[in-house]
Amino acid sequence: MSIQWYPGHMVKARRQIQADLKLIDVVVELADARIPQSSRNPDFAEIHHKPTVLAITKEDLADPKCTGLWMDFWRKKKERVVVLNVPSGRGISQLKNMIKTAVPNLRRPPRVLVVGVPNVGKSSLINRLVGRGSAKTGAKPGVTRGKQWINAGGFRLLDTPGILWPKFEEQETARKLAVVNAIRDEVVDVQELAHWLLGYLTENYWLAVSERYNLSSPANDLLQEIGKARGCLLPGGVINTEQAAALVLNDFRTGKLGRITLELPEEGN
User: Fold this and answer.
1) Does 218 reside within a domain?
2) Which of 43, 67, 35, 76 lies closest to 178, judged by CA?
3) Contact, 230 vs 251, CB < 8 A?
4) pTM of the prediction?
5) Are residues 112 and 218 in the same domain?
6) Distances (CA, A) of 233 to 72, 97, 225, 242, 249
7) In terms of residue numbers, what domain contains 88?
8) Alpha-carbon Rg of the chain, whole angstroms?
9) Pairwise CA distance, residues 197 & 248, whole Å
10) How far apart are alpha carbons 224 and 221 in whole angstroms?
11) Would you give the distance in Å from CA 210 to the centre of its chain?
12) C-alpha angle with apex 82: 41 to 133, nearest 5 degrees?
């Protein structure tokens, strides 16, 4: 399975970001705590000449020990970085302070560009900063489409659509993005994706898998075993592996498998 997903609205949004950069004082780049490096769009490197704050979202779904390792890694690189729990509001005050201190001599409200891959939590963060439902949110990647300037207390926020990049050099990166739902399920083979995820979990989080699906030991075909355990059946008692795959992916995405991180700083960084 080769994964590529770069629809037309992302091409348009990338051009719009380039055009809007001259208006921007500070960039807030969001990354998913479960895949902190893979969820950073390399095309955003061109905007890093602006003061940038790296905001790590979905930390409540990530392995806290791994998040700590990533924080150490970024701090050694002198990045402005904050871990957020957007639903609870944890880290929001720290983010606001980082934005202000990034442009200490500015005498007007900073104009802030919020960027990230699809489904990383940009709109949810903006709604938290504003305190009301200003930006559309949704479980499907690519809900936010147009440019939106939003007043948020002491800031002017520019929300943008989630943007990927034209070609994934490493399919491992694409798989990780698909697993966290930054790439639509409709453009991937969910069974292959679930097999890949289960392979990683077997090596690194087997206890979480065994407890969730009541399995005693890793099997050659975990999807078959999980489908059997969860009653994912077709007529005639055949295991519905596509349903089992969707179940596994949903369990991971919603935290039902526990707090899991899919990459560490030493992996290619």
Assistant:
1) yes
2) 35
3) no
4) 0.89
5) no
6) 46, 53, 12, 10, 18
7) 8-159
8) 20
9) 9
10) 6
11) 25
12) 80
Number of residues written out for the chain: 269
The pLDDT profile of the chain, 269 residues, written as one tens digit per residue, is: 788 877 788 888 888 888 888 889 999 999 999 999 999 999 888 777 899 999 999 999 999 999 999 999 999 999 999 999 999 999 999 999 999 999 999 999 999 999 999 999 998 999 898 886 554 444 544 444 455 678 887 899 988 889 999 889 899 999 999 999 999 999 999 999 999 999 999 999 999 999 999 998 887 789 999 999 999 999 888 999 999 999 999 999 999 999 999 999 975 45
* Joined tokens for residue 164: 């990927």
Residue with tokens 């490493």: 170
C-beta atoms surrounding 206 within 10 Å: 14
Same domain? 153 vs 193: no
**Same domain membership, residue 145 and residue 30:** yes
- Mapping DSSP onto H, E and C, the string for 144-169 reads CCCCEEEEECCEEEEECCCCCCCCCC
Q: In angstroms, what CA-CA distances link 143 with 10, 129, 138, 167? A: 12, 19, 6, 21
> Domain of 28: which CATH number?
3.40.50.300
* One-letter amino acid for residue 69 of the chain: L
Spatial distance between the Cα atoms of 27 and 102, rounded to a whole number of angstroms = 10
Residues 6+ apart with CB under 8 A from 198: 209, 222, 223, 248
| Residue 258 maps to a domain | no
In the chain, the amino acid numbered 200 is Y
- For residue 82, what are the β-bridge partners? 55
Strand order in the sheet with 155-159: 80-83, 52-57, 26-32, 111-115, 155-159, 148-152
